Amino acid sequence: MGFLSKLFSVATPNESNTLNLKANRNRVICTCYSVKGKNPDSHRTKKETVVVESTASLEDVQRKSGLFPPYEIIKVDLVPPTEKQISYAKECGIVFPEDASIRDASIFLTRYENGQPLIQPAVSDDLVRYLIEKNIFVCAYAGVSEASNLYLNSIPISEKAAFFCMRVFCDCKQMSYCFLEDAPCQERELFEKFGETQAENADFLKSLGHYSATDLPLDSCPSLKKIKAYGIACDFLKCEGAL
Fold first, then answer.
1. Within 13 Å and on the Cβ side, how many CA atoms surround 28?
2. What is the pLDDT of residues 151-200, one digit of tens each?
3. What confidence score (pLDDT) does residue 22 get?
């Protein structure tokens, strides 16, 4: 099957022309604010970007910013799809949902180009809230793959390494921890220790880069490919007596 035929087998005109009716919108929706206030340490004016649920109050936004009054709070409006995105989508036979943002449009087009189903299950409420807690904005039409990718690309490298170590542990022990917070305190401290020790290990980080959000989804623990990063994590866990 050729590349174009593969794409059109995923996004046929009948499916894509009713995309605005069938697309799965997440129930928990993110809202972003720009908050200006006083830094509690220096007492100088500081600006923070704050991600909250759409139902959050301004008091919630102020509290999450960690800043002191006086506040200047501006809601960051969603940007609609660009003319270029709309034109390209039309060529592909895709009609975006009416409330889709520029980020949602990018998700649909990327799925199309990768030969993936355009319409995918919504992200669970708990997972969206978990990412909001980490100040990560999740698009309304993002699926688990996109949400997992946002997580992996937004967190500090030490946390990513710790998360990977946890998944290697799960793979070896036939266990299932979706988040670092799912692990018992003693095990989590071990994973975090690995993250701290490997955060500047170029060989490990290069190998870690070969694991995508498909390999490390936030809603499940699939088997991992056994490459260099996996071996480094295994050796660490064995030395610590965890395996």
1. 19
2. 999 999 999 999 999 999 999 999 999 999 999 999 999 999 999 999 99
3. 67
Give alpha helix (H) positions in the chain. Answer: 3-10, 13-16, 19-22, 58-65, 83-92, 102-113, 125-133, 144-154, 157-173, 185-198, 202-208, 228-239
Q: What is the pLDDT of residue 23?
A: 80
Burial 161-171 (b: 16+ CB within 10 A, else e): bbbbbbbbbbb
Q: Is the pLDDT of residue 46 over 70?
A: yes
Q: CB 11: neighbour CB atoms within 10 A? A: 25
Nearest CA-CA partner of 104 in 78, 83, 128: 78
- With a CB cutoff of 8 Å and minimum separation 6, the contacts of 171 are 221, 223, 224, 230
Structure tokens at 230: 């996996």
Per domain, the residue ranges of the chain are 1-154, 155-239
Residues contacting residue 21 through CB under 8 Å, at least 6 positions apart: none
Whole-prediction pTM: 0.88
Determine whether 77 is exposed, middle or buried from the number of CB atoms within 10 Å of its CB (0-12, 13-18, 19+). Answer: exposed
Nearest-angstrom CA–CA distance, 84 and 87: 5
State how far the Cα of 102 lies from the Cα of 147, in Å rounded to an integer. 16
